Known about the structure:
Blueprint: H1 2-37, H2 69-77, H3 79-101, H4 105-118, H5 123-136, H6 140-153, H7 158-171, H8 175-188, H9 193-205, H10 209-224, H11 233-246, H12 250-263, H13 268-280, H14 284-297, H15 302-314, H16 318-334
Amino acid sequence: MENIFKSIDGKKYFLVSFFSFLFTIVVGLLIIVHNRNNKDLLITPLPTQYIVNTDVLQHGNINVSFQTNEDKEWIEDNPQDFQKEKKEAYEYYELGNKYAAEKEYKKALEYYDMAIKNNYAVLSDAYYKRGNINYNKGLFDEAISDYNSVLSYSITLKAVIYNAIANAYFLKKDYANAYDFYKKAIDDDPAYISAWYNLGNINIILDNHDEALDNFNTALNQAMSTTFKEKYLANLFYARGVELYNRQDYINAIDDFKKTIDLKSEYENAYVDLGNAYIRLKDFEGAITTFNNVLNINPNNLNALNNRAYAYSSIGENTKASKDIEQFNSIKKSLGQ
């Protein structure tokens, strides 16, 4: 009987060892296939460009320049009519502002239209506000037309308008025009941080990586000298970090991603790319800790699950890797992907 149990124990040990080995191979293959399908490490997308600040141009801060001498002559010859139209135009304009603030954009557009038709004195503001509504509705051609009209009537804050036009071209994926208008914004105002940042993003898309890095460095230098630098720094450090990561300068990329997180503790993309950089340096424990932080913020972050599975598999934690893969696939299935 004793010999029988010894034999059974030997077989049992053999079977456990065999299935453990088989499990390791299967999980390894699953991870390889999974990561091939997901291009190994999922570097997160480029940060989003700043959208138009709808509060930049305020009533009373715009210098009006009329397009023709006939316009000026009519105003000189008809001062009372001009003042009447001016009063009505401001009323329409303020109603447009009211409805825009209440997010009743259809009514806001109607009143801005009436203000534009009624009097020159509010044209710059009205065109700009109408352009912002069109921009936020995804009507980029209409927005570009309105912003160009602002340039026809206003001689101030041109950099803001150039940046707005560039943003619209950016979202139309017309990167050549976006590049040109960001450059115009910078030429008009060399200290315009948002334009430098946006130009950097365009240059990454256009594969002008040296210029992109210069753009982000300039934007950071400009931001450091402002009193409201917190508005910009997190996005700027992250953008530069992505560019450094893509240059395989992982040490400096890690430094920028950490600065981003210090400024904005729930910046998911910065955590994910910080973890990716640790993986590239084969610091898998550091990567796992970082991806854990992401998943504490958002348990459904697919990039973090995918890349934590990769990190777990790299240190032989195949059970944990398999669990992440299962969760990854479950979430994708629920999203219909």
